[in-house]
Design goal:
332 residues; mainly beta; Mannose-Binding Protein A, Chain A; Jelly Rolls; 3 domains; eight-stranded mixed β-sheet; 3 helices; 8% helix; 35% strand; elongated
């Protein structure tokens, strides 16, 4: 860094100002504003010149400049632990790979002891966009309540495109290469996908048996039947009203010993009469997680103790409502 400063007169910093007030100058790594420390030259910030900020050498003073001006720059990565992977960012390894179907992409990530990538910060969003310059499949599943990550991590960062996520276009979350925005689709237009794993995670190199998943969106009554996670389970006709006097059951399982996360994104049934029961296991003899009716409720969910979940829905012969929709994903 010392040599760089010595050899270059000025270079861009990761700071953007929106007014002359330093509290409105934001670092692009989301670390806050310049209010806690700054070294602006006299008369700055001055957004009349430009919103971007450069470091002036000698002297080390900061000044505004036109963002289109060509200046040297320094990229800073967050600290991370060592690993043999090529793309190492903030204690995770990333593997950008060329396109496959969604089940094939999941299988390939399994082979790498990884999962389809979740995104948790603007920096991670930009990093993935930099290593995967095409429409890229991520590890998210869109639903009426937003989206969830297949790896079970929280949805603590949102980069939806200018249009709200429309799960009716398909349940799989993808990333626009030009903007980094997320959008939902059926997964057929992805040219790349990115696998992600923690650095140093043990990996035997053995391919898990039955590693491919069949993603199913089911508002039909299986009665009986089993589908593989990840899955979307909805009451018949959802989001329209379900029929009267109907009984439905769904069995959902994951491969191996993966537990399942069920998120009920919307729920509205006739209170006390039209009931959804959820069991922690393969059938209705398994422990009952809960029996639900009424609503409408805010999204809620839970994690199973094993690789199976069983759901039943019973409506009486009278009033009908919009019902429910849920997403079920393996927890890795």
């Amino acid at each position: 860094m010392t040599n760089f400063l010595f050899n270059h007169g000025s270079f861009w910093m990761g700071l953007y100002c929106f007014s002359k007030d330093r509290s409105q100058c934001f670092w692009d790594d989301d670390s806050g504003t310049a209010i806690s420390y700054s070294n602006f030259a006299s008369g700055y910030p001055n957004i009349g010149i430009g919103k971007c900020v450069y470091y002036s050498n000698p002297g080390g003073l900061w000044a505004n400049g036109d963002c289109g001006e060509l200046l040297p720059y320094v990229c800073e990565l967050p600290p991370t632990l060592p690993d043999t992977c090529l793309h190492n960012y903030k204690n995770h390894c990333y593997y950008p790979l060329t396109g496959s179907s969604v089940p094939e992409a999941i299988e390939k990530c399994d082979e790498l002891c990884a999962t389809l990538a979740s995104v948790h910060s603007p920096g991670e969003n930009r990093f993935i966009a930099s290593i995967s310059p095409e429409i890229t499949l991520l590890g998210g599943i869109a639903s009426p309540g937003g989206y969830i990550w297949m790896d079970g991590t929280p949805t603590d960062y949102n980069n939806d495109d200018v249009y709200p996520l429309d799960y009716k276009n398909g349940p799989f979350l993808s990333m626009n290469p030009g903007t980094g925005d997320f959008f939902a689709s059926d997964g057929s237009h992805n040219k790349m996908f990115v696998c992600k794993r923690p650095v140093g995670a043990p990996c035997s190199g053995q391919i898990p048996q039955n590693a491919t998943y069949t993603f199913t969106s089911s508002s039909k009554c299986l009665n009986p039947g089993v589908i593989m996670a990840p899955a979307i389970i909805s009451s018949p006709n959802y989001p329209k009203d379900y029929p009267a006097d109907v009984f439905c059951s769904w069995g959902v399982s994951s491969t191996g010993s993966h537990r399942l996360r069920m998120t009920i994104n919307a729920f509205d049934t006739e209170k006390n009469d039209d009931i959804v029961k959820i069991y922690d296991g393969e059938d209705d003899k398994s422990p009952l997680i809960g029996a639900y009716s009424g609503g409408p409720f805010k999204p809620f969910g839970f994690v199973t103790s094993g690789p199976s979940i069983y759901i039943t829905f019973l409506s009486d012969r009278y009033y009908t409502f919009s019902g429910f929709t849920s997403t079920i994903t393996p927890v890795f």
